[in-house]
From TrEMBL:
InterPro entries in alphabetical order: KH_dom-like_a/b, KH_dom_type_2, KH_sf_prok-type, Ribosomal_S3_C_sf, Ribosomal_uS3, Ribosomal_uS3_bac-typ, Ribosomal_uS3_C, Ribosomal_uS3_CS
Subunit structure: Part of the 30S ribosomal subunit.
Keyword Plastid: yes
GO biological process, one term: translation
The name this protein goes by in its record: Small ribosomal subunit protein uS3c
Entry-linked CDD domains: KH-II_30S_S3 (cd02412)
Cellular-component GO terms for this entry: chloroplast; cytosolic small ribosomal subunit
Organism listed in the record: Fragaria pentaphylla
Name of the gene this protein is made from: rps3
Keywords: Chloroplast, Plastid, Ribonucleoprotein, Ribosomal protein, RNA-binding, rRNA-binding
Subcellular localization(s) per the UniProt record: Plastid, Chloroplast
Major location category of this protein: plastid
Keyword rRNA-binding recorded: yes
């Protein structure tokens, strides 16, 4: 049967780049990898804590990390940077301080920049957060999926596939439901496809959301 590979890793070097750019000796590699994970977790937690109650969407599309000998450069791509920018400098300084405390890096400078995304809903992570928020509020999953697809179509993408798995609508038996709109050519390496998988904790168990978005062909 057809085996699924992660579309991002499959396209590395063709249409996808790495989200972390640094070089490490083999014996330090694992430490650096864990450090990256710590930075990402710390930023996500901070954004979640400082969210306005009204919106469930964190709006972080991706976090890119570049490391040099004396500098860690973190770029946060956000769909709705209002969440952090309102008191911009203070919030970012606070975030930098938090991350530095988490890493306790003495001899390296940390630099955090925020970049705004033009069409937030053409990014699978932001879309997954939107669907997750809907599912937590007990909206029926089909409605949530259709709404998500509408949002991406407005953002001008060529195709999208959304899959939800687990105890959907609280049913006893877990199942997988999916829906596709437009074309999603997963076999074509030239096709730039964004992908994310996201876990939602609902009252009756964990649901998995997977989203493939076909952006364009190179």
């Amino acid at each position: 049967m057809g085996q699924k590979i992660n579309p991002l890793g499959f396209r590395l070097g063709a249409t996808q780049g790495h989200h972390s750019v640094w070089f490490a000796q083999p014996k330090n590699y694992s430490e650096d990898l864990q450090e990256d994970q710590k930075i990402r977790d710390c930023i996500k937690n901070y954004v979640q804590k400082n969210l306005k109650i009204s919106s469930n969407v964190e709006g972080i599309a991706r976090i890119e990390i570049q490391k040099r000998i004396d500098l860690i450069q973190v770029i946060i791509y956000m769909g709705f940077p209002k969440l952090l920018i309102e008191e911009r400098t203070r919030k970012i300084e606070e975030l930098q301080f938090n991350v530095q405390k988490e890493l306790n890096c003495v001899n390296r400078k940390l630099n955090i920049a925020i970049t705004k995304i033009v069409n937030p809903y053409s990014h699978p992570n932001i879309l997954a957060e939107f669907i997750a928020g809907q599912l937590k509020n007990r909206v029926s999953f089909r409605k949530a999926m259709k709404k998500a697809i509408e949002l991406t179509e407005q953002a001008g993408t060529k195709g999208i596939q959304v899959q939800i798995a687990g105890r959907i609508d609280g049913k006893e038996i877990a199942r997988v439901e999916w829906i596709r709109e437009g074309r999603v050519p997963l076999q074509t390496i030239r096709a730039k496809i964004d992908y994310c998988s996201y876990a939602v904790r609902t009252i009756y168990g964990v649901l998995g959301i997977k989203i493939w978005i076909f952006v364009d062909e190179e």
